[in-house]
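FORM 12-B: Structure-to-Sequence Request
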C-alpha cells in the first residue's frame, strides 16, 4: 500500500503517512462498490435480500422492515411489484474477501 499524496510505501495498518502526514483511507471491503450504496444483502436474506439491504443501509430494524413489507403487500398489493422491481434494480452485495494480514516487504 502506498500514500496517495507522496507515494511512500505504508504499513498495512497505517492510518497516516509518516512522511507527509496524509490520512490513509482503509481499503474498501466492497471493491468497486461504495459502502454508502444500497445493496441487496447476502447475509440477511429470505428471498432476494431487499429487506436486509434496506435495513443495513438505513440502520433500521430488520424485523420491522420485513413486517412493513408484508403489511404493504397484504393491504395494497403494490409492495409485491415494488419488491420485484427492487430485486431487478438494486445490485447484490459482493462477496467480502478476507483481509490479508501479511506484510509485503
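FORM 12-B RESPONSE
SEQUENCE OUT:
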Amino acid at each position: 500500500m502506498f500514500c496517495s499524496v507522496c507515494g511512500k510505501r505504508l504499513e498495512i495498518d497505517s492510518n497516516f503517512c509518516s512522511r507527509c502526514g496524509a490520512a490513509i483511507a482503509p481499503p474498501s471491503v466492497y471493491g468497486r462498490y461504495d459502502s454508502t450504496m444500497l445493496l441487496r444483502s447476502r447475509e440477511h436474506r429470505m428471498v432476494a435480500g431487499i429487506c436486509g439491504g434496506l435495513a443495513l443501509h438505513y440502520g433500521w430494524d430488520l424485523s420491522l422492515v420485513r413486517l412493513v413489507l408484508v403489511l404493504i403487500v397484504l393491504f395494497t398489493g403494490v409492495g409485491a411489484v415494488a419488491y420485484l422491481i427492487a430485486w431487478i434494480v438494486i445490485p447484490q452485495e459482493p462477496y467480502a474477501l478476507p483481509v490479508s494480514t501479511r506484510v509485503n516487504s
